[in-house]
Design brief:
The chain is built from 15 helices and nine strands. The chain is α+β, with helices and mostly antiparallel strands and about 375 residues long.
């Protein structure tokens, strides 16, 4: 049976677009991106307008594809609020090859700086700057030849994300073909003043040395058969034992005598025993340069790493970033950065981490199904439940 055709987007399904004016300061400066190529002076859509349309795609459940987004550009309300003209599908497709995605990455940096920590207290202060690092695969189409992965029939892009845990905010991201080195991407994205928390996929002594040289610290899981030279055994406090810590040792050198000593400084190895979902026990071997951090907080820092996995679920399943609006690498990057901007805007507007319920309420409001009072009542309820 043929698939039922979706009804066209109508004016009454796009409410409260005046609030998209709040995005103008965020997108300021983008209107000049890509105009050097417009020698004829007849460009009808500019980068700030294109990004506004992509954000409209995320914030409005009625718009589900590039074609429906193109249809929305013909509506008088959209044209007035976003300052655009009716735009052809070809022009929207061409935009991903004209406008460079990199300025959007800088906007992500700026918005992340504005976000305030959502967690407070002694533990949060000790773990200030805790940044989870990981990558996730975005399935691509076979014709996306740039998205190298397993073979010609299995293409994918990979999002490399830095996620500041206590702000619940993405702070940096890059997009590459799925067949790439995650440790190398982290090396190129390093910032000072962070406490990076990483899983075993990033276990590289040379990478650890780059992190320290960049002025940051680390909590990284390594294999549970890692060779090391012990310098000092530390006594375990009751709080550490309650957190599952079974050993805390200062290490003079990671690796055997045959390994090069990349770190050239003492680090700690904190071993944590935990139960897996199937109730079997496993040991987490965690390396950190933070000699001052209580062992139980080293364990807590690694447990916080799972927040990035939850964000990936939000990013793919709720924001809908499994569906790509473009097939070229730059176009996918624009969509990814716009999704991160949308997530950051929710954090900044609500002072809460983005959730499915809050996302739905914002979308209900922007489609006219919920009033401003109902949206505010939802946010007040969140504050009361905290």
């Amino acid at each position: 049976m043929a698939r039922q055709r979706r009804p066209p987007v109508s004016e009454d399904q796009l409410q409260h677009l005046k609030y998209f004016r709040l995005l103008q300061p965020v997108l300021q400066g983008l209107e000049h991106v890509g105009i050097a190529r417009d020698r004829a002076g007849n460009r009808q859509i500019f980068f700030d307008q294109y990004v506004s349309l992509v954000l409209l795609y995320f914030f409005n459940p009625i718009i589900t594809s590039l074609r429906s987004l193109q249809q929305a550009t013909g509506l008088d309300k959209v044209q007035k609020r976003l300052g655009i003209r009716r735009t052809s599908l070809g022009s929207l497709s061409e935009a991903t090859g004209v406008f460079d995605a990199e300025p959007l990455r800088h906007i992500v940096h700026e918005l992340a700086e504005r976000a305030l920590p959502l967690e407070h207290g002694r533990d949060a202060e000790a773990l200030r700057g805790l940044t989870a690092v990981d990558g996730t695969v975005l399935p691509a189409l076979p014709q996306m030849a740039w998205a190298l992965w397993m073979d010609d029939q299995h293409r994918a892009a990979k999002l490399h994300l830095h996620f500041e845990v206590l702000k619940n905010a993405p702070v940096d991201a890059t997009l590459t073909p799925a067949a790439c080195s995650e440790p190398e991407q982290l090396r190129m994205m390093l910032q000072a003043g962070r406490l990076y928390v990483m899983d075993r996929g990033y276990a590289s002594y040379q990478l650890f040395s780059h992190i320290l040289a960049a002025g940051s610290s680390l909590v990284a899981r390594v294999k549970d058969n890692t060779a090391f030279t012990a310098a000092e055994e530390r006594a375990l406090s009751k709080a550490a034992q309650d957190a599952g810590v079974i050993r805390d040792v200062v290490v003079a050198k990671l690796g055997t005598d045959h390994h090069k000593n990349y770190l050239r400084q003492s680090v700690r190895l904190v071993i944590v025993r935990r139960a897996k979902p199937d109730r079997t026990l496993e040991e987490l071997w965690l390396v950190t340069d933070r000699l001052d951090l209580p062992a139980e907080l080293v364990a807590l820092a690694y447990r916080y790493r799972w927040s990035i996995e939850l964000f990936f679920r939000w990013f793919k399943c709720i924001l809908g970033c499994r569906h790509l609006l473009a097939s070229n690498a730059n176009g996918v990057a624009i969509q990814v950065y716009a999704a991160l901007i949308a997530s950051l805007l929710i954090v900044l507007w609500t002072g809460r981490k983005p959730t499915k319920r809050t996302w739905e309420m914002i979308r209900f409001y922007l489609t006219g199904w919920a009033s401003l009072e109902e949206l505010e009542a939802h946010l007040v309820h969140l504050e009361g439940a905290a």
